[in-house]
């Protein structure tokens, strides 16, 4: 019975993660397509659904602990579900931040978004997806890959910073747009940091090894 409940928690966690990943993708792809329509859903129905799932999953995991009093690995797994649920809630907040910045850019900045932004977004979403998969499968190797991928996202953030600073220096009227682009890059960087934190926790859960190097700010 306990194992069935844990499987159910994992399935619901995957569904929550897919929703949040979709929010991140929709927010950045709107910039590429120059179509603001998806942004309303991200900051409306999807955000509401994400908040509901967070509350439901948190309650379900807490109920499993109270009812079954799991021990050892089972307890660590349920506690990980609680931790990842909190991380996903924060990921959803970052997705909404990106959507709001994207909405402003589409309305006020005619120039195209730097190509590094969608590349960075795709890399960050892939890290989240792999981190969740590593947890579900108990795959420490995949979790380590997530942690290693963080450097590539940081490099893209640096590239976007250089591009934005150069654009703002050449054209002072582009400063506000440049700051919005930098805000998007910062949110994507924090998304990658959260994915890295999940990967580090998976390694600890599976191997008992602490490999934490940083925390998402």
Quick tags:
217 residues, mainly alpha, Methane Monooxygenase Hydroxylase, Chain G, domain 1, 6 helices, 0% strand
Stretches with pLDDT under 50, minimum 5 residues: none
What is the CATH H-level superfamily?
Answer: Phosphate transport system protein phou homolog 2, domain 2
Total beta-strand segments: 0
The percentage helix is: over 70%
**CATH architecture call:** Up-down Bundle
CATH C-level label: Mainly Alpha
**What is the mean predicted local confidence, pLDDT?**
94
* SSE topology string: HHHHHH
Structural class by helix and strand composition: mainly alpha
Task: Summarize the structure in short.
By secondary structure, the chain is mainly alpha-helical. It contains six helices and no strands.
How would you describe this structure to a colleague?
The chain is mainly α. The protein contains six helices and no strands. The termini are far apart.
Detail the topology: elements first, then pairings.
Elements: H1 2-33, H2 37-68, H3 72-108, H4 116-137, H5 140-170, H6 175-207
């Amino acid at each position: 019975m306990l194992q069935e409940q844990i499987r159910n928690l994992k399935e619901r966690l995957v569904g929550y993660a897919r929703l949040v990943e979709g929010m991140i993708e929709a927010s950045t792809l709107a910039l590429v397509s120059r179509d603001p329509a998806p942004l309303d859903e991200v900051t409306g129905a999807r955000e509401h659904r994400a908040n509901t799932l967070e509350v439901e999953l948190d309650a379900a995991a807490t109920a499993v602990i109270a009812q079954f009093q799991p021990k050892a690995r089972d307890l660590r797994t349920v506690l990980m579900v609680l931790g990842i649920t909190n991380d996903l809630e924060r990921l959803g907040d970052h997705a909404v931040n990106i959507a709001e910045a994207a909405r402003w850019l589409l309305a006020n900045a005619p120039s195209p978004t730097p190509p590094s932004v969608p590349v960075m977004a795709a890399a960050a979403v892939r890290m989240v997806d792999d981190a969740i998969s590593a947890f579900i499968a108990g795959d420490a190797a995949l979790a380590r890959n997530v942690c290693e991928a963080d450097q590539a996202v940081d490099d893209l953030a640096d590239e976007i910073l250089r591009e934005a600073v150069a654009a703002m220096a050449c054209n002072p009227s582009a400063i506000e747009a440049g700051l919005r682009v930098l805000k998007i890059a910062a949110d994507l960087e924090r998304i990658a940091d959260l994915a890295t934190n999940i990967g580090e926790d998976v390694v600890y859960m599976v191997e008992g090894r602490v490999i934490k190097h940083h925390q998402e700010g």
